[in-house]
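Troubleshooting: if your tokenizer reports a length mismatch, compare your output against this known-good record of 319 residues.
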Amino acid sequence: MYENNNKKNLNVFLAQPRGFCAGVERAIQIVEKSLEKYGAPVYVRHEIVHNTNVVNDLKIKGAVFVEELDEIPKTNQPIIFSAHGVPKSVPENAKSRNLFQIDATCPLVSKVHIEAEKLYKNGFEIILIGHHGHPEVIGTTGQLPHGKINLIETIKDAELYKAKNPNKLAYITQTTLSVDDTEEIVRCLKKRYPSITAPHKEDICYATTNRQNVVKKLSSHVDALFVVGSKNSSNSQRLVEVGIKSGCKKSYLIEDENEIKWSVIKNIENLAITAGASAPEKIVQKIIETLSNEFNVNLEFYNHINEDVFFKLPVEFNE
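Known-good structure output:
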């Protein structure tokens, strides 16, 4: 409790778990260790993870971010593929140019890629539940020939979908979706196509699920919710939606302490804070510090589940 008699009290409930997941930790480590091992510059195709603060920190250290490989000059330096995964054409292109490539794709995204390939080889018609234009969706659809994966974004898409092969139909999903929205779409597909094949293990990742579950529990106890994350972060955007649907209408996505909604919190007593899977903990702490300058902050930890997931680094970094 930071106490000052002239300040208003504010109860801040800090969601646990929040922030970095194992896939994000691994991807950032890959860039940092590449810089240590090979020196700057290290090239990264697309933002390594969707967070402005993370990307800017890595730029300062010597990472160069590009959207396409043709932006990279002839070089012996590493080219790193982001945590979201890439279409097969990207590593093929890198190989044809003799570029030194390192894959930072999250292992849980790679699992979806492997799933898609197995389904295709076994003759399934494949539905991907996901968001059009998201890098992960582009990467997953790019594992197979064009048109072999059919994207469904909404419940309406599911209601209108016409399967060409109803008896051999399967679905996979983007890893960062709303759990509840995805379940609704899946229920619709199963009702229309009872024999549809589901993933052997849930595609939505453990971190997305855990962060959404703690927000569901917290939302009914607080007056407002801040989700720390960048606007292009799918899992962070979903946390805001979950907050609103769970009863906390004042749920907002904020990049950092500069985006604190002072007009919202000046008249409330209970604020929840969580962070998307690509948002650094140092930003959360900076927000709490900034709030404590204006309020007597009573900090409480709201623990849902402990995470102990760890992903190994690629072979390039085996000691």
